[in-house]
């Protein structure tokens, strides 16, 4: 199914999520402004988000930020459109899919969190030095069609002279939540994994990371805080404060070690091995995954469009000016 097609199925999920998520509150009462954030998944990939809450950077701005994990780009966007959450943390491509459907109340990207793809190429039986040509005629366990991980992966493979639909056996019929389990059970010679799963598999001896799709696909607004245009118009002060709190966290993450970041965000990963969380953060910091400021620049946006066009998921060129608002990011940075 084309990426644009699954947005036509949003009506029922919107109604359902409106009911389910409306009951997800923490019962706190204060003078702070409540902001409900829906994240596409729980991941160390989003370390600045957790730092912003744990270090009190949102609280300093008078915001009571509640994080809900809405498990999947389609579900996260459905929750945002239904009004069950105020702000979504999800791939920027989701806002483009909504825009391409002619939304009367478009979703606006206003603060970037990650600026590279977050997946790594993991090989089951890597012998000797890795070369991208080794993927030819292999079985590759990929991600969902139309999602940023798969599109960035295809973009990177194309740059290495590999057509994922002709040169290898591409498996895309496994849900995101079950990809790691499928590989562990023997499916695929290679798999596209986020951290900390890649580090966990390395520790378990299931293979090793041989390349980074984030490095190969370049800078792009991979994960962004976004909200409906109507919410921005009605809550400009809140969006400004939210962006300022995020930027404080981005600066803190940039200036502190992986060990220090891991210590702060461990409450969000209570069942995880602290050493794995630390090594995962270090891998992301080393390749410049975490954005150091909330600005979504033109070059990054154009690279995103190129990635989507390569995957056949771009219905029309969508200029950044249509669904990107850097005013809040620029104001926050200029007022420091």
UniProtKB/TrEMBL annotation:
<comment type="similarity">
    <text>Belongs to the bacterial solute-binding protein SsuA/TauA family.</text>
</comment>
<protein>
    <submittedName>
        <fullName>ABC transporter substrate-binding protein</fullName>
    </submittedName>
</protein>
<keyword id="KW-0732">Signal</keyword>
<dbReference type="Pfam" id="PF13379">
    <property type="entry name" value="NMT1_2"/>
</dbReference>
<feature type="signal peptide">
    <location>
        <begin position="1"/>
        <end position="23"/>
    </location>
</feature>
């Amino acid at each position: 199914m084309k990426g644009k097609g699954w947005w036509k199925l949003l009506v029922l999920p919107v109604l359902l999520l409106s009911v389910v998520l409306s009951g997800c509150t923490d019962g706190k009462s204060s003078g702070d402004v409540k902001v409900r954030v829906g994240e596409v998944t729980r991941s160390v990939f989003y370390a600045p988000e957790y730092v912003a809450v744990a270090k009190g950077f949102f609280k300093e701005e008078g915001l009571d930020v509640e994080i809900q994990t809405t498990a999947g780009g389609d579900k996260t966007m459905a929750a945002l459109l239904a009004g069950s959450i105020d702000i979504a943390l999800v791939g920027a491509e989701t806002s483009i899919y909504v825009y391409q459907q002619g939304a009367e109340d478009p979703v606006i990207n206003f603060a970037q969190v990650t600026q590279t793809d977050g997946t790594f190429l993991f090989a089951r039986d890597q012998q000797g030095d890795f070369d991208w040509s080794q993927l030819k005629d292999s079985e590759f366990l990929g991600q969902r069609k139309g999602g940023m991980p798969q599109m960035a992966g295809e973009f990177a493979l194309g740059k290495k002279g590999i057509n994922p639909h002709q040169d290898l056996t591409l498996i895309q019929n496994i849900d995101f939540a079950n990809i790691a389990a499928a590989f562990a059970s023997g499916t695929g010679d290679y798999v596209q994994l986020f951290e900390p799963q890649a580090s966990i598999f390395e520790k378990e001896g299931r293979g090793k990371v041989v390349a980074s799709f984030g490095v190969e696909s370049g800078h792009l607004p991979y994960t962004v805080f976004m909200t409906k245009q109507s919410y921005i118009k009605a809550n400009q002060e809140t969006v400004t404060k939210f962006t300022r709190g995020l930027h404080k966290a981005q600066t803190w993450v940039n200036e502190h070690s992986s060990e220090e970041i891991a210590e702060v965000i461990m409450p969000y990963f209570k069942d995880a091995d602290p050493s794995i969380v630390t090594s995962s953060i270090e891998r992301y910091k080393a390749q410049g995954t975490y954005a150091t400021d909330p600005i979504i620049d033109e070059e990054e946006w154009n690279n995103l469009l190129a990635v989507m066009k390569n995957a056949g998921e771009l219905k029309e060129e969508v200029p950044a000016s249509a669904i990107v608002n850097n005013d809040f990011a620029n104001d926050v940075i200029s007022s420091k």
